[in-house]
Amino acid sequence: MKARGEEGLLERVAALLDEPRHAEHPLREALEELYLKYRDQQEQLDRLMNISDRYQALAREAQQVTQQRYERALKRQKKLSRISDRYQALMRERNQTLHQEAHHDALTELPNRRLIDERLAQLDQSGRRYTLALLDIDHFKQVNDEHGHDVGDELLVAITRTMRQGLRDHDLCGRWGGEEFLLLLGDTALDEASRIVERLRARLAQVRVPSGDRWLSVTLSAGLSQHRDGEAYLTTLQRADQALLEAKREGRDRSQLATR
Ligand SMILES: Nc1nc2c(ncn2[C@@H]2O[C@H](COP(=O)(O)OP(=O)(O)OP(=O)(O)O)[C@@H](O)[C@H]2O)c(=O)[nH]1
């Protein structure tokens, strides 16, 4: 790379050296040598500048390629993490659904036997006191036989709705069997539980579902048992079940407290 003035000077020197009248000039040889060395150095410098320019262009290109690769990898990574987030959300949803289905009854959406068993086992561990009440619809087979299974189902759902409304937030109501419900009344002694269940039975007797041109209602029998210190919940349940059988034997539509 030469400045414009420098190029002009070189041309002048070359012209002077070419002139025949300077052929014998005492400075000519030295000037020619200086001129050729200078040109040589200039050519070397030009080559170096060229190499440096190419190197810089290559470095810029490499940097651009690296940057593009990095951006592509980042984009891929973001896409993958979006897919992974969606997949995880889907799996969480699936797990929740599976958990809900495994622990709840499909018809009434009430906790099923498995969930109630888990809660009772936890309660036994905690040492908190509770009373269990088994409630069973009276003559439900007759309802199905006379009005059809669909009406029976409707009645179960309507009873569940009223049961939910009639209980305190910390009580648990589950579907224990076909037409049998289990109430878990936490921190509740037998006499208080009995009042709660009687109030509930009265409300449940008011539940009506349509069947043809009639309104259908049912009564429920209940067996209650209070958990005793150190006792396994299955024992409490057996007493409640016995009490329920007694209530049925005594004519239904009543509560029986397990005393023994
Ligand atoms: N519609 C309907 N019926 C059910 C369901 N689960 C159980 N059942 C019926 O509930 C009835 C229970 O009959 P039983 O055990 O003889 O008792 P019950 O007729 O209620 O007589 P008591 O309990 O002695 O008063 C049976 O006919 C079952 O088919 C259900 O999900 N839907």
TrEMBL record:
One of its GO terms (biological process) is negative regulation of bacterial-type flagellum-dependent cell motility. The keyword Protein transport does not apply. CDD domains: GGDEF. SUPFAM superfamilies: Nucleotide cyclase. Its cofactor is Mg(2+). PROSITE patterns: GGDEF. This is diguanylate cyclase. It comes from Bisbaumannia pacifica.
